[in-house]
Amino acid sequence: PYTGPSAEEILRKRQQFLSPAVFHFFKNPLSLVDGKMQYLFDEKGRRYLDAFGGIATVGCGHCHPEVVDAIVNQTKRLQHSTILYLNPAIADFAEALASKFPGDLKVVFFTNSGTEANELALMMARLYTGCNDVIAIRNGYHGNAAATMGATAQSNYKFNVVQTGVHHAQNPEEYRGIFGSDGLKYARDVDEIITYGTHGRVAAFISEAIQGVGGILELAPGYLPAVYNTVRNAGGLCIADEVQSGFARTGSHFWGFEAHGVVPDIVTMAKGIGNGIPLGAVVTTPEIAKVLTQRMYFNTFGGNPVCTAAGLAVLNVIEKEKLQQNALTVGSYLKERLTSLKDKYEIIGDVRGRGLMLGVELVTDRQLKTPAKVETLHLMDQIKEMGVLIGKGGFFGNVFRITPPLCFTKEDADFLVDVMDYSLSKM
Ligand code: PMP
After folding, report:
1. By its UniProt entry, which SUPFAM superfamilies does this protein fall under (predicted)?
2. Which residue, 65, 117, 343, 365, could crosslink 370 as a Cys pair with Cβ 3.0–4.6 Å?
């Protein structure tokens, strides 16, 4: 049993010694001390079903024994920098990761986070094309450093510091988007941005396959193929940000972009790559990768032996335990059950997503789509009290984000929906 400090003590220390910008969702913040697969435990030993491990995209499940063993064994053997020396763990994982990609996407750069991965991807695209202009999608999230904060398109996450060279296209999503689900109309916006907003050439287009922070919004069908075509005609590279949608989460495919029938020039990833270990990566073609030989480029800990040992274990577990298939089966079932809640409760405006990356948008008026912000927070708290953790997102903070570990079962899905149903009935 846990014998450390209480939640109140931790909160007091956090308020005194940690960044005032860190936040928590709940009235009484949870102190989590243990994890096992899809479960989390607080300091009193109370169990919670984790339906939001996706924030770290813990794909295999918390403390999966094979991943833990890989981390512990490599830590005992050697932990060092990625640069200067050869090490088998780094090379083996790079090879295994490259094998998950189509076409020429075969060169891996490791980083420590999703932000770093996207920063690197944007810089490579700018170097490769000699252009500065980048196109991103409104409501997207790509990170919190200079270039990525520029590419991010939600005012909540943008500080008033210089962010140049980015144009933000209409968000091609069905629920609030201005063209409904007409992907080609949204794609024309990208065309017009290039025509009217640049000198006719661009460095890159970057987008998530499903917006995560933005509230689980899928791209309208037909959008990505048309935009990739337009961007490439303007000399630009297409970057897929797979930080949330990658690593089998969407169920139908290993990568989110695959559902759109496109092959990007650069793919970025983090979160799920290491089952919670700080690791990120950029995967691109040998030709594009060459631009980084113009100068010295390195990352001290990006892809160090311990993190890459974890990464390799994660790939093995996803395969061995058929987690992609599970994400598809359980995710489809869960989506169906959530959709049936929509028939029962007016407050549910939309249920969407793919695999185990699902969103439930709450509105106080279905016609006007008025965000039910206060209700969302209240319900999340109630759902937590009944032992289930879900996340929230969307620009207005009115979307439940359901991104559990990929080992989530049908029984877990039933429990989650029953708890949500009960909480909604008590509103
Ligand atoms: N891209 C996407 C799609 C993300 O969701 C996030 C994090 N929420 C990032 C990039 C940034 O990753 P990190 O927090 O690891 O820097």
Report:
1. PLP-dependent transferases
2. 365
